[in-house]
Amino acid sequence: MAKKKEVTVEERLRALYDLQIIDSRIDEIRNVRGELPLEVRDLEDEVAGLNIRLEKLVASLEVIDNDITGKKNLIEEAKTLIKKYSEQQKNVRNNREFNSLTKEVEFQELEIELAEKHIKEFKVQIEQKKVVISDTKDRLKERQTHLKHKKNELDAILAETEKEELALIQKSEDYKTQIEARLVAAYNRIRKNVKNGLAVVPIERGASGGSFFTIPPQVQVEIASRKKVITDEHSGRILVDAALAEEQRAKMEKMFSKL
């Protein structure tokens, strides 16, 4: 059985920097989308909320219309009763019966008066709700237009980048399988804890990439020798020499052009 070839530190560093370049490219694609997915989601929620509000307002109008119909029916019933009691008054035998019927007529007249008052109040409510409904419809139309615009914007960006992003995510997973789990775990941890997700950076002008902290000359020599994995004591990032970084960037650019 052939002995498995041992991976050198330099090969590990190259693989780690390749992984960083791929993941940074994915980050760039997602940054182009920016807050658009969130904006679209928020607008969808707002439109849904406005639709629900509109439905409730329209339903409340129907309830008020039914209440008005109920009051109008009550008025008609009261008028019928007034007519009935007035007819009965013509045939009463004594004042007590007459007064009793008079009270019934007065009560029905009060019922009519109260019902008419309620109808007026209901009509005021209807006018107020119609204003709110009109405003809500205007707001809904404006939000729907804005949502359509943002969706088109997002769809356009997705159409341009989705295929590349999916291919890069697969590449990222493939590269992780080529690196020992311990290093991948360290890389992921550093990426979460540092700015811009840069876990592996080259030495630039004597300092670690993206940092102003100078790397001592002796440490720079060690990094350039590619004999061990060295991290920046200030940021925790894994450091590679500029030459290795340049070689891997050129290699990865060729790969990206084929995606």
UniProtKB/TrEMBL annotation:
Coiled-coil zones: 40-125
Gene3D superfamilies per record: 1.10.287.1490
All copies of domain C4-type zinc ribbon, residue ranges: 208-239
Domain of life: Bacteria
Keywords, in A-Z order: Coiled coil
Annotated signal sequence range: none
Listed InterPro entries: Oxidative_Scav/Glycosyltrans (IPR052376), Zf-RING_7 (IPR003743)
Matching PANTHER family: PHOSPHOLIPASE C-BETA-2-RELATED, SCAVENGER RECEPTOR CLASS A MEMBER 3
Name of the protein in question: Zinc ribbon domain-containing protein
Source organism (scientific name): Algibacter miyuki
